[in-house]
Write a structure and sequence with these properties.
The chain has 32 helices and 18 strands. Helix 17 packs across helix 30 and helix 20 crosses helix 26. It starts with a strand and ends with a helix. This is CxC2-like cysteine cluster KDZ transposase-associated domain-containing protein.
Amino acid sequence: MVSGAVFVPHGRQPESSIALQKPHDYQREWMATKRNIYLHELYGMEIGADTALCRCGKAALWRCLECIGSAVICAHCLRDAHLLLPFHRVEFWGGTSWRAAWLRTVDVQVHLGHGSTPCPSLRDVSSGPSGCEEAPEGSAPSDEDAEATRFDVHLDDASDMPRVGEEPRYRSTLMMVIVDTSGVHEIPVVFCACPNAHPRDIQLLRMGLYPATWRRPQTAFTFRALDDFLLTNKECKTPAFSYYSRLRRITSESFPHMVPDRYRDLLRLSRQWRNLKARRLAGIGYPDVPVPGPGAFAIKCPACPWPGINMLPNWDSDEDKWPHAASVIMDGNFGAQHMKMKNPEDDVRFADGHGYMVTDEPYKNHLKNACKPKSQKLECNEHRAVIGAASERAPLEATGIGAACCSRHGFFFPHCVVDFQRGEQQKNMDYCLFQVSQFLNGIILLLVLYDVWCFYYKHLLWRFENCPALSLPDNLTITGGVGQFHVHAHRAECYARFSPNFIPGAGQQLIEFIEPNWIETNEVAGSTRGMSTGHRQEFLDDHMNDSNWYKMTRLAVALTRKWEAACSKVGPAMDAFDDLTKNSSPDNVKAWTQAAESAAAERHTDYEAMDIYAVQSVKPVPTQQQIQLELAQAENARRGAQVGAAAWIVSGLKLEELGVAAKARTILPASPIADRLALEQMRGKLLKDIERFHRDSRSYLSGDALRAFLDVHRDGSALGAEWDEDQVSSLGADGPDREDIPGVVERTQLFLPSTLGAGACRTYGMSKLLQAERRLRVGQMNDALHAVRVGIGYKSYLYRTSVRVANSQTKKLRSFDDVQCADAGILSNARVYETARSSLLRLYDPANPEDEEELESTTARFRPLNRSKDLKVNTAIIESTTRGLSHLHLPWFWYLDTGATTADGSWTDEMYRVVWLRGYARKMRWEEEVVLVHVEMIRMQEALERTARVWEGRARGNTEGGYASWADRQAHLWRSLRSHAAGLFERARASHRPQCTSAIISRNLAKYS
């Protein structure tokens, strides 16, 4: 059922036999029971009927491959049935098999000028087939078609060769090459010969045929073929050459090279057709839009705020400004390169600045006159986009593009896509931001997310004041941040200052929408690289517009899902925050609340105000070396203390970290002798160090303790075997597992307190050593976690600066070698962390009340690492284009910045402060999300309704030549979208309500009910 432009399902129940089967079971059943039967039926369709008669009584020797059922009929009936279907593919029974044929053989013609009926001014027209019951004769191609005469082949040799260049049977007909989705046809066309006849190109257009030239048209494309190519190009990214090659193969399976080559015509005409469609969809030619202006062809996001279009009542006087703020995300893409034109003076532009790419001349003037940027020091990880500004590539006119899209819905912004000349320079992105601000003129607050915002914003206002082409609307406040999945590769300070998690009014910015947009753009980068400048601009505009239209048709469903998610998650976020508040003192809660509100108010002018969400590093997280120094100083200060005990324990920890166990697992019997020799030399050195460590232990351990060590069974997993790289076992039956070899040095027992456990240490008077190892293990874990974070951030950096931009297989392989090295470092430090954590837990006795509370705090702070989840760096932190990122959460240790010490010396208090503030921010963002989605639903309906009203006004004011009908058709389309969205939103609000009590939500939902 179709209602307007919306398909309404009838609720058809699936077949039970299919529903109960898995796909592979269904395939097995088909292969066993149906494959041969279906194959037999396909063979049966090749059977002809020499004595078959048509329903009119004549010999039935023809069939149409495109009419349903492919009924066998006579030539007269075939012609009568296809007078208005001249591009169907037909076959003729040749006595032993079916042969390819053409409808022109039965005198099917295309009549122009009189609604497909013959022109009354002509007498020399066909009245029906004559002698067509016989097999059609072959004919040689004319010299007029270069493609057909390229090969010295006689068409009489094979009936399925394309027959082109035939002379028309009647003087009044013209044999034209017509390109349709069904193939390439040569068919007789009869033009109107009346005295007041329109030009031939207009006659073709009115028949749905687009002429290759308007002077003496010999070739035409059906509107259907041009529409199909443009849609296939946008949906499947099929280039024109591949599309036309497909048509040639459809036309002649055996001899596609003999089909007339109209590839260049397709390139030229599809560009014209694309522009005509864009102008018609934009309403160009109506009184209100006589000529297109900047961004006239672009589809705007209906849920974003557009002054004068979809703003809520009294929005400018609302005490809450954030529900009416616009949010964009900017980024550069170095995949969309463009070669310099050999003859730029030959460039023809159909739509300069009418879509998403900026108008060329003003942009070039800006680049020429832009002020020189102030020198800045890169304090975060190196951004290849910024450093690349110094490396110009001579053959390229554009090294990439920069763009902006709305950060909450992913729609490209109109007229803001800029070309890069020497990398992602600030003057390029300044012009992009300038265009965004002009389209949002009237908006009070603009949030800009940019992966180098911490670098970009510092002299932003100075550049806008000193560049003649740049300006910002009055009363516009710009605040910025870094996308959620880029911010983790920045300095630690950037997370609190620029993460969307802490930006007031941002809601839940879980996805960097512009990154998936680049995937689609890069899929056509090969096609656009060598195009003319104007053609490339129109091509990219068309694909970006299609991307926006795709999102438009699904935006109502997306907002419905966001509403359901916000309603379901705001309650748990508030409950978790309430629990944090209950477990904190009222004085602290009051101070923290005031700090959060003050930071939110000051953020627009001072990003450092957000540092309250990070650890106040009075002194850094204690490292193992610092703890060793502190213990050594304490030993020297205490009378009778075991001087050097801390250094002795540290030496044991170092032996444990050597990583020889991991090295051993990568050495196989088939490994080179040099590798195996190196391993044995490492083992020899390790054995000497262990013997020295055990000799020194006599100074710190009693004889009973030493004897107790000999009775302890060594746990192989203590070396972190679960963190080793997966290796394919190649030892075979004759090769024993390395863990089973007795006497392997890396499995030698170390005489550390953690080996005996807390209970035994107290029994043998080792309490001081136990306390020392506890503290040193904490420092060891802090070091290891820091190294893991650095490794993951470095790997993220490698993906962004090396892997993703590698333009050759060699560079890509070299980049992945670096990634593998980073992986090895991450796993090595993860192994150290897990080993230290396991040892630390053995230093506590759960049965001892003194240890119980400290053990609980330790396990809560230092959690186990999960290799498959916590270290899966090819997700959000690495590749933000990965789908499904909105459901991912960063591993716990990314938020473990709670080791710093406050003024009173308790890092535990600082941990609670930061956790409470981040819980507060999480609650606020979900409350904002509920309000923002509610407002976006209203704005979307208003934008669609307004667009429908605009088209209705055009329909009432224009009655000439189909203008009114087209406007009414567009009004119906936009109103259908509006009705569909309204129905979805109404059902969503009825079935899902926020499961919490919040002043922010209640006030704003009541205000905009």
